[in-house]
Specification:
With about 300 residues, the protein is α+β, with helices and mostly antiparallel strands. The protein has 15 helices and five strands. Strand 1 and strand 2 form a beta hairpin. Helix 4 packs across helix 5. The longest helix has 17 residues.
């Protein structure tokens, strides 16, 4: 890998490395600003250009002018000499850099000091009895509960049979065996082969993980996950270095399943009160894809003796 931006992007930031989490050093903000600046063309902002340009995208002074801040201050932000900025400045930078709503929200997260950097998520990687009951009751919908690292904390039989039937169904109940969606998709050939459009799926995985990471820069387990993925997957590393973000709340996935065949499924994500994420996959009612998905439900019933 080349360049300071790529080095900055390999981890969420060194919040949990420098000073043993005692001193928060947000190295991610500078790298993110640099990446976003380099992708914006001057003509997109109405700026006039003359002659050749030695750098891609906007110059630092151009971003500063568009955002209404001094060039010195913006340079300090991009070089990580200043770790954070006010929400007003961050919003001005988001407008200047033409960020999407998800990218703007991510900028606000990484550009704002963490109030309690060592505080764990409310759920503590636990699933409430009510949520487990909900997941279990969704017989015709593939449902799973993830934490902010995309570890699978709970799944119903249909989700298990759809995405990872080669794994033990009880694996989410055991922290040492708990599957992780991002690792499965990038490092498990069986799971990866399900996706008809792997380039789109791989990018969605990485942009979603980065979006989630904005509120959890202090989590050493998240850093460990990203480190493992960068070691074992050059593809993940390349995508992570781009620093793109997306909330991936809803959309469509096209799967090629060995039992059910081609499946076009809708998906939605919902954030739960305990800090976890409910993932739902379902087919359009009365469609051939719903019929195919029901084959997996029927297979579940037979295998469990119901």
């Amino acid at each position: 890998m080349e360049g300071a931006a790529e080095q900055d992007a390999l981890l969420i930031g060194r919040d949990f490395i420098i000073g043993g989490m005692e001193q928060i050093v947000n190295t991610d903000l500078g790298g993110y600003l640099r990446q976003m600046r380099e992708r914006v063309r001057p003509e997109q902002t109405g700026l006039q250009t003359f002659g050749s340009r030695r750098v891609p995208g906007l110059r630092r002074e151009e971003v500063a002018t568009l955002a209404g801040v001094s060039q010195t201050y913006y340079t300090r932000l991009e070089q990580s000499q200043t770790a954070h900025a006010s929400p007003q400045v961050l919003l001005s930078l988001a407008r200047a850099l033409r960020l999407s709503p998800d990218e703007r929200d991510y900028l606000l997260k990484i550009g704002t000091p963490l109030q309690n950097p060592q505080e764990r998520a409310p759920g503590g990687d636990q699933v409430s009895p009510a949520t487990r009951m909900l997941v279990k009751s969704l017989g015709n919908v593939a449902a799973a509960v993830l934490n902010h690292r995309c570890d699978i904390l709970s799944w119903n039989p249909l989700y298990h049979r759809l995405l990872a039937p080669h794994l033990d169904f009880t694996a989410p109940d055991h922290p040492a065996q708990r599957p992780n969606v991002i690792k499965l998709n990038f490092l498990d050939a069986t799971v990866r082969s399900l996706y008809a459009d792997w380039p789109a799926e791989s990018e969605a995985n990485v942009t979603y993980l980065r979006f989630l990471s904005g509120n959890h820069r202090h989590d050493p387990q998240l850093a460990e996950l990203i480190g493992e993925l960068t070691i074992h997957s050059e593809e993940f590393t390349s995508l992570w270095c781009r620093q793109r973000v997306s909330s991936c709340i809803e959309g469509t996935k096209l799967l090629t399943h060995p039992t059910a065949g081609t499946l076009e499924l809708l998906y939605q994500s919902a954030h739960l009160q305990d800090g976890n994420i409910l993932k739902l996959y379902y087919a359009e009612p009365n469609s051939p894809h719903e019929t195919a998905l029901q084959l997996l439900t029927t297979d579940d019933d037979r295998s469990s003796g119901r």
